[in-house]
């Protein structure tokens, strides 16, 4: 799949994290913003490419539908009629209905992925802009610290530093609230899209079964079984990511924010106030290893891309193109 412009935003998201993290060492209330930026690391270009693949699937289904229609019209009743012809027509009509169900699902996935890619792209640009603003404030604070060492400028620099710090704290708090609301909206849309696609998938599989594709449930079940390891690794990485985010926020560890494993819920513990700055900084440094360096070659350690502690586990296993995927994918990898 050809690279698209949205793929560049992966490095923009990484840059936003580094800017915000550096700024947080000078503006302490920025750590909550850092946590949001950390957990929002993504590559919308991959979603866009996936949407394009679903569009290609849709196009193939359209071509198949036209071919079935052509077959139905190819033979007139005068050339062939009777029970065999009726059975033949019914079989093709059932097949056409299966194609159209899959077509509807492919269109829905294509549109959802495109919308999500655009929303994530806009969110990344927002968090980069906000991170840049607080980074500039942090650099001004750093310069004023340096000027305080100059005797003739000490009094002025001290007063200016106090004023800039106060302004930076207020601005950072305001930007955090905006970013928090945007992140919540994006998460809500994502959950709604996932629920919608889940419902459409159930309709598709059921419709396939009712129109004669008796292998639909078996394929669906096999796909679910084959993805269990990836789902488990994804949950493990997400758990580490959420815990790292809690370190950055510096308020509490565990609890409902980490989710649950079945009926088990993680216990919660408040972080003592005098220890919070240390937890925030540890989370920020650890997050830098997770996120990686902007522009680093993909696949190398500096590129990051996943939580560091669980990476040896989450990086194991077969990649895209295992035997089941190769057999069932409408667009097998070239």
Question: What is the distance, rounded to the nearest whole angstrom, between the alpha carbons of the first and last residues?
Answer: 10 Å
Low-confidence stretches: none
Proportion in helices: over 70%
Helical segment count: 10
Radius of gyration: 27 Å
Q: Which whole number gives the mean pLDDT?
A: 89
Cα shape: elongated
CATH topology of the largest domain: Substrate Binding Domain Of Dnak, Chain:A, Domain 2
Helix and strand sequence: HHHHHHHEEEEHHH
Biggest sheet: strand arrangement: 1-4
Number of strands: 4
- The CATH level-2 architecture of the largest domain is identified as Up-down Bundle
Q: Structural class, from helix and strand content? A: mainly alpha
List keywords for this structure.
334 residues, mainly alpha, Substrate Binding Domain Of Dnak, Chain:A, Domain 2, 2 domains, two-stranded antiparallel sheet, two-stranded antiparallel ribbon, 71% helix, 3% strand, elongated, transmembrane helix, transmembrane
